[in-house]
Amino acid sequence: MAFPEQRPRRLRRSAALRRLVRETRVEPGDLIYPLFCVSGRGVREPVVSMPGVERLSVDQLALEAKEIQSLGLAAVILFGIPDRKDDLGSGAYDPDGIVQQAIRAIKEAVPDLVVIADVCLCEYTDHGHCGVYDGVHVNNDATLPLLARTALASAQAGADIVAPSDMMDGRVAAIRRALDHEGQTDTAILSYAAKYASAFYGPFRDAAESAPSSGDRRGYQMDPANAREALSEIATDLEEGADMIMVKPALPYLDVIHAARAAVRTPLFAYQVSGEYSMVRAAAERGWIDEERAIEESLTAIRRAGADRVITYFAKQFAHRFRG
């Protein structure tokens, strides 16, 4: 029997050859690190459901930012846990709110580090929903001015990018108008354009203390069964003024990332969410998988699907290993 002329294994027989022909690469500069901000000083509070992740006070965030820059990571994205919550989430748009304090501290410590401010009300409301809530429904249009105020407060504090994650209709246009009206024309918008009502957010809601006290978010976040709808959401947000778009979560929605990459030329981000992170950590702690290989493989898959940048809680761990 004649041997085949094509032998793909020729290019797999050594690590050097595999690197030579590798199609998709992941580097620290492709990754964005999420940070949870709390009040106080010297606070480094572990998140039980996310081993290795901590809630940090503002002074600790400044120290963390220096390490993040030294590792070559692309950016940080900030989430705040206020001391006080109310029905309208006023801590989100307080000029001296916890995220606004964190932005100023990070920019003072590391001026060149790109800072993204998540824009949502769920961490700041006493009911845990992403907008104005009457006990049954979230009022879309009444929420838009509050989101715009939140984005503006973060931009004025020094955020380079604001990232609305609430999934209210029309929020990108409302934010763009507010930013431009107040002279923040250079502040970019990264829209969570395709954010699904996912079961993989559980550990984040623990970390951010943002679980709804009643009901759920399926009335405004996307149905996991829908892919074509994601392209419609993305097109709408770009028309309203988004500079970049995001798919969230990442691994369960690689097909959506791939379709989005084919549909648009704008920068495309994906969020490897808390549940994705915690599953890998839990399995690795039990010796069921090789953690480092699982991290690299999952990030490679997200990049291979078409994401330009990945938000991931593994960013620091990956960067340390990447740099040896």
Largest sheet: 8 strands, parallel, barrel
What is the string of helix and strand elements?
Answer: HEEEHEHEEEHEHEHHEHEHHEH
Structural class: alpha/beta
Low-confidence stretches: none
Portion in beta strands: 15-25%
What share of the residues lie within helices? 25-40%
Q: What gross morphology would you assign? A: globular
User: Quick one: CATH class?
Assistant: Alpha Beta
Amino-to-carboxy terminus distance: 46 Å
Using the coordinates shown, work out and report the CATH topology: TIM Barrel
Which architecture per CATH? Alpha-Beta Barrel
SS summary, helix count: 11
Number of domains: 1
CATH superfamily membership, which one? Answer: Aldolase class I
Overall number of strands: 12
What is the topology, as strand order, of the major beta sheet? 1-4-5-8-9-10-11-12
* Structural Rg: 20 Å
Question: Mind explaining what this structure looks like?
Answer:
By secondary structure, the protein is α/β, with parallel strands linked by helices. It has a single domain (27-322), classed as TIM Barrel. Helix content is 39%, strand content 18%. The protein contains eleven helices and twelve strands. The chain has helices spanning 15-20, 58-70, 98-109, 140-157, 171-181, 202-208, 228-240, 254-263, 274-285, 291-305, 315-322; strands at residues 31-38, 44-46, 54-57, 75-80, 114-119, 132-133, 138-139, 161-164, 188-195, 244-248, 268-272, 309-312. Strands 1-4-5-8-9-10-11-12 form an eight-stranded parallel β-barrel, surrounded by eight helices. It has a two-stranded antiparallel ribbon with strand order 6-7. Helix 5 links the parallel strand 8 and strand 9 (188-195). Helix 8 packs parallel to helix 10 (291-305). The longest helix has 18 residues, at 140-157. The N and C termini lie far apart (46 Å). 48% of the residues are buried. The model has no long low-confidence stretch (mean pLDDT 94).
